Amino acid sequence: MSISLSSLILLPIWINMAQIQQGGPDEKEKTTALKDLLSRIDLDELMKKDEPPLDFPDTLEGFEYAFNEKGQLRHIKTGEPFVFNYREDLHRWNQKRYEALGEIITKYVYELLEKDCNLKKVTIPVDATESEPKSFIFMSEDALTNPQKLMVLIHGSGVVRAGQWARRLIINEDLDSGTQIPFIKRAVNEGYGVIVLNPNENYIEVEKPKTHVQSTSDSTDEPAEKRERKDKVSKETKKRRDFYEKYRNPQREKEMVQLYIRENGSPEEHAVYVWDHFIAQSVAENVFFVAHSYGGLAFVELNCCNWVSSSEPLDTSVESMLPDCPRVSADSE
Known about the structure:
By secondary structure, this protein is an alpha/beta fold.
């Protein structure tokens, strides 16, 4: 017979055993009883969860959602807005589902930037080799040749990517609220060149290679009895570690490692890179920036200058208590 207990019960049992083993004869009897109980617990059965597989569609149609003529995300059968709590009491699964949908929407917005806004996708670093990690930005055809004006858009931190302001608004409100598309279309209609930065695309993820751990008894001159004892402890430790890993990651999701993109490993680096290799090469007489949230801080990295109210002569350096861009006097007297 196997016994299935909840993890909330099992964890205190292990803690109590450690405490009991330090006691007298009565505690030792309790220890024996608890060991007998634990020996009959089926850990695999214990760890079986009601959580469905983390296997989600890779298209909007697969999720049974689509954007209507108003740019609102709606269920193709019911016409209802997106529902986060698709399965009750499974917050982790619902969050993973939301993230999977978000990745599809990111690709969808990229397509809109190219098809609806007529922007071109430009790979960075500009001299990237075929094998190294890469990112990209979007530009209008006249971004570097427009003699009058250039508009640069920078989104904030988090999961958003080029062309987005807020994923939550795209999903729960509409494309006009959550994307940069209205800004881009108006800028193009009013004669601006356009560059759309992608400051959160700082690395690519690849599956972590498996490493072989050598047995502790393979290369030692220790007595056989001591080696056996060490191996037994090692196996027990591994068993406990695997148990907790199974609890933390019941579906054995792949472990990933991050490979950072050269000279674009952070939003600040990205902003400076795009400035040096694109914006600074533009012939536009005026350059305008539209930045949201952390995008403003990334913009500050471009050696900005802030003219502030001061009685000092114009352009005199003014001390600041904040670690932001240099401040100089606007000669406001």
